[in-house]
Design a protein that fits this description.
Layout (H helix, E strand, L loop, with lengths): L1 H28 L6 E8 L2 E7 L6 E6 L5 H6 L6 E7 L4 E7 L7 E7 L2 E11 L4 E8 L1
Antiparallel strand pairs: 1-2, 2-5, 3-4, 3-6, 6-7, 7-8
Length: 139
């Protein structure tokens, strides 16, 4: 009985991880659909972030005015501090300011199109190297 139970658990875990892999691959396949972001500068606890719309259509970009936690960024659970870049034309770029927020270490951007929300979020911002670690997800 124990061997059968272990085999079933291993099969279920394998199935679960295969679904997660497919979801990640789908997000990566749609990478061109996401907002492009970059570090421009940081002064007095405020990050200046470059934002580019690489879509062939205009979008309404939402972003969090304060740094947030990763789980909140990934689920777009950001109700209080969301700001907008309205009518953001195709291939347009601008910069926004995002303030540090205690222990939170993520920045988050999003737009909705075709019934989906495209979220770009990042952490590990480095002003000296002008780098950040970006993740994308569709919900």
């Amino acid at each position: 009985f124990c061997a059968v139970a272990i085999c079933c658990i291993v099969s279920l875990l394998s199935l679960l991880f295969s679904f997660q892999t497919r979801e990640v691959m789908t997000a990566n396949a749609e990478a061109e659909n996401f907002i492009q972001i970059s570090v421009i500068d940081k002064n007095n606890g405020v990050w200046e972030i470059g934002v580019t719309n690489k879509q062939s259509h205009k979008i309404k970009v939402e972003y969090n005015e304060y740094m947030c936690f990763g789980a909140d960024a990934k689920e777009w659970d950001l109700s209080n501090d969301v700001r907008y870049i309205g009518n953001f034309q195709s291939n347009m770029s601008c910069s926004v300011k995002i303030s540090e927020n205690y222990f939170a270490g993520y920045i988050a951007f999003s737009y909705q199109y075709g019934g989906k929300r495209y979220i770009t979020y990042a952490n590990k911002l480095n002003n000296d190297k002008k780098t950040l670690s970006i993740s994308n997800i569709v919900i």
